[in-house]
Write a structure and sequence with these properties.
mainly beta
């Protein structure tokens, strides 16, 4: 999606989030969010766990960064072919993350929405293998109140 097509205040969006671990059954969530452009990057913000966790994804054309705040504090960077560091913290536990991104794709069929962000990675948490993850996020413009 061209950044010029996104208003400075962002667009309200509907997010279909699909997560799969170690080839198992997909976990799906439908979320409300906001997509906006800033400083040459696309940002997607949304809330999880009834608003107790706020997540921001930042796509700069090469890497995808996920930052969570709230009941969970975490950061991960996804860069194809690279191993990157991160962290995960809750009031009860804290550990370092290592992420090896296998695949990363951000795109749309045309100049607007819907848009799909997907990536696959191997995660190490606190020095132990936590498995292979595949994430797919489909972003659609939220319907307006008069539709």
């Amino acid at each position: 999606m061209e950044q010029a097509a996104i208003p400075a205040a962002g667009l309200p969006v509907k997010i279909a989030l699909e997560s799969r671990q170690d080839g198992g059954e997909a976990v799906r969530s439908e979320l409300d969010g906001r997509l906006y452009a800033k400083d040459g990057a696309l940002y997607l913000r949304y809330a999880e766990e009834d608003g107790r966790i706020r997540s921001t994804l930042r796509w700069d054309g090469r890497t995808l960064r996920l930052v969570r705040t709230g009941d969970v504090e975490s950061a991960q960077t996804f860069e194809p072919g690279a191993e990157t560091g991160g962290y995960y913290r809750t009031p009860l536990v804290r550990f370092d993350l290592r992420t090896r991104t296998r695949r990363l794709s951000v795109g749309a069929d045309g100049p607007g929405l819907p848009m799909v962000w997907s990536w696959a990675y191997r995660l190490e948490a606190g020095g132990a293998d936590a498995g292979e993850f595949v994430i797919k996020i489909t972003i659609r413009e939220a319907p307006t109140n008069h539709e």
